[in-house]
Amino acid sequence: MMLQRLALMFCAALLPGTALAARDCAAPAAVCEARGDGGLALIERGTPLPVLVDAGDFTAVQRAAEALRGDLAAVAGKPADDAASPSMAIIAGTLGHSARIDRIVRDGQVDTTGVAGTWESYLLQVVENPEPGIDRALLVVGADRRGTAFGLYELSRRIGVSPWTWWADVPPPVRPTLHVAPGRFVDAPKVRYRGIFINDEEPALGGWIRATYGGPNHQFYERVFQLLLRHKANYLWPAMWQPRAFYDDDPRNAGMADEYGVVIGTSHHEPMMRAHDEWNRYGKGPWDYTKNAATLQRFWRGGIERLQGREAVATLGMRGDGDEAMTEGTATALLERIVADQRRIIADATGKPAEATPQVWALYKEVQDYHDAGMKVPDDVTLLFADDNWGNIRRLPDPASRRAGGYGVYYHFDYVGGPRNYKWLNTTQVERSWEQMRLAWAHGVERLWIANVGDIKPMELPISAFLDQAWDPDAADLAWIEGYPAAWAAEQFGPEHAKDIGEILTRYTQYNARRKPELISPDTWSLVHEREAERVLAGWNALVGRTLLLGAKIPASHRDAWYQLVEYPVLASANLNHLHVAVGRNRLYAAQGRASANAWADRARELFARDAELQRVYEREIAGGKWTSMMSQPRIGYTHWQSPERNILPALATVDVPEKGVTGVAIEGDARRWPVPLASARLPVLDPVAAPTREVVVFNGGRQPIGFTASSRTPWLKVSPASGEVVDTQALDIRVDWAALPEGEHEGLIHIRGKDWTEVTVVVPVHKPPAHRGVRGFVEGNGLVAIEAQHHAQAVAPADGQWQVVPNLGRTLSGVTAWPATGAPATPGGDGARLEYPLVMDHDGEVEVRVVLSPTLDIRHRGGLRYALSIDDETPQVVGMRLDPTPGDPDFRAWEAAVIDNAHAATSRHRVRAGANTLKLWLVDPGLVFQRIEVVRRPLPPTTLGPPESTRR
Hints:
Elements: H1 3-13, H2 19-25, E1 31-32, E2 40-44, E3 47-48, E4 51-53, H3 59-76, E5 88-94, H4 99-106, E6 122-131, E7 134-142, H5 145-158, E8 178-180, E9 184-187, E10 193-198, H6 204-213, H7 218-230, E11 235-237, H8 246-249, H9 252-260, E12 263-265, H10 276-282, H11 289-305, E13 312-316, H12 332-350, E14 359-363, H13 367-372, E15 382-386, E16 407-412, H14 430-442, E17 448-454, H15 460-471, H16 478-493, H17 498-514, H18 532-551, H19 559-592, H20 597-621, E18 663-667, E19 681-682, E20 696-700, E21 706-711, E22 717-720, E23 723-726, E24 729-736, E25 744-754, E26 759-768, E27 778-779, E28 784-788, E29 794-796, E30 802-807, E31 814-819, E32 834-841, E33 845-853, E34 865-871, E35 877-881, H21 892-901, E36 904-912, E37 915-923, E38 930-936
Parallel strand pairs: 4-5, 5-7, 10-11, 10-17, 11-12, 12-13, 13-14, 14-15, 15-16, 16-17, 19-26, 27-32
Antiparallel strand pairs: 1-8, 2-3, 2-8, 6-7, 6-9, 18-20, 20-24, 21-23, 21-25, 22-24, 25-26, 28-38, 29-32, 30-31, 32-37, 33-36, 33-38, 34-35, 34-37
Helix pairs in contact: 1-2, 1-16, 3-5, 7-9, 11-12, 14-15, 16-17, 17-18, 17-19, 18-19, 19-20
């Protein structure tokens, strides 16, 4: 069952008598507080049912049953009665491994159709008189050991226990009464292997492991296995940053994984079940197959032999030492020989055909080139496609292709590498990971989904979303992802504030995805154009206000979870943005000679200290200091792709402030201090639609206040205040009497004089556009029309498809994409699939149209992705987007810019006419996500997010 339905059940449980409650609580095996017809009490008057499991069943089942007993006790407030012969119970077991369950099946009391023989499937069903002495029971029947365990963990989730109950200190809800509805519920995963990769784990997770467990031993991994299984996941690439080695660090690690039923693999560059650091420990000679093949073969054989029959997925192939490329160019023949030799080792070491051991070949970075060059691997090997380390999948198979080993995807929520590390907080929008993995599923990727989750802790939301989607990608439709943040919030904090919490989680990840925190600098948000810095900080301030207001309503029992999952990421992210803007203001104001530059330096120091204080609360105060070191990833002070060893306050400027006041003037669009010798201060154009006023500031460069006057002799231009004293800054209010102006171009002047005889004349250019009365659409202002892609006037759907709005998937609003996205390219024109946008343009002329897209890559290897664009009845122009993460590729720089901005702007040129125009955005290649459209007559001012959306009439 998907998480949205789970949350609805608990919302329904708290809303008895509603239609929602009646519908969901009657669903097979639904768990609600209200008793329905034929329901079985899991908890009655604070006493839970016992959980019965045969002693001969798998250890994984025993452990899951013990977890459910503990969860029921936590929800009920006490454990089950210690009765030797209970009259009602939860009975769990695995087909063929539980005598009790097998007897119930033989007696015909339960139908195992859809369960028996189906990988990891399970059944939940209330039955009558399952065995002598038990009047009623909830059966949990699994096809295999993980199927049974997943049924038990699913029941834990249904009674309200979050998968993050330990990892994020989410307390189980107290429910004195809970009932499970009658009916037969069968479930099974659609993706065979679903898991996470713990990576880049220093200093945060690594420091926490050392402080908590002494090292990456079985006690640590036991907690990881529990987290996976509570998400019904089954697969792990263990932590491998040197000097870590899963099998070697603690002999009990592998056995513990097997006891829980977790399948262990090794990462994309660790072949044959060997950790990277084991070569440092036991290898001899170079990590080079052309020079040291025999030693490498012995080393790899040891990795396979120590499996001792345990489940695993063996990584094949070979990269260079240290996760680098193995050779210059594409050594296809060499890699084919390596894979063939590795498979011979697998067959010899296991005594079984090689295909009996699951294997994966990771097409990561340059290994993708081998595949593109035509390298073949045996059909039973899973081909693991990869993203570009920034959440954009590089390549996907033809949807019609099939192979025995199937296909997988390796995805990233965390990365160490260029153009910049990102490890501190979650910056992955669940809408983007969902959209990319939906593409993967549609293209037949059904064998293995794995996400690099870094330290685990900051990535709680995307981990849950990724694993929940992997369980049943078909059920994870657009409505599912729209409701996911609120449903996930309900699972952690209950339904009362779930919608608001979900919105906060959505907004902070959207804000962080615009530019990852590690990439933000004092220059990121413009201080002189489009009020960008003010707009960005206003968004963060509003989000902080909502978070603190809502936080006051969160019960004390949930405060630890609230700080980890909501409050810290919001406050710390907002603080970081404020810090960089403060540093930017300090530097700008120092260059302008403002006395306030020093105050902004002080403010930056305060914000830097606040970052440390927020981290201290996370690591030392909440949960009794449980999470020491966990937020220690450096995020401030980057100078290149690699992180600094610690947070470093960016360089600040100091101004030697004179005692007497000194007049200075700053204007919008210009970083200089005025007056400037032999130059005139000139504002950007004022426009009644897009820019009815502009910013002019009189500032003081000294300690003592200084007087000034401001005036205009232009009849239609007013400025206020006309005079005053400036202590720090004084913004001037500039107003244009638009009714007094004819259409066209005009100029006015503002005269500013300081008491120190400083004089500045500011030229005020003004454009009054034609009225175009009665014309509807997005109105040009200041030579620009900006439109969010979602705001189309008409959407002509592709044949057998539709245009879909993916909420929040965009830097400024959302994303629009055509679905399904597996078909052949479309031909633009005629009545083809398109989005239409009405424009109201000032006058005839040529424009550039910038279409801002999510940085989707060439997943089908067709030479890039394309759309087409036309205005009115012109022939559509086909426009390409080519982004390639391969260093040295002609499109590498475009890719690098796109992942930094989390968007790419493709351009084309067109002619418009005065008045009404219709812009048509045509579908060509499926898979593109359109964010916004900008129609410009002149170059845009340099900002990160672009201008606000234009007025629509």
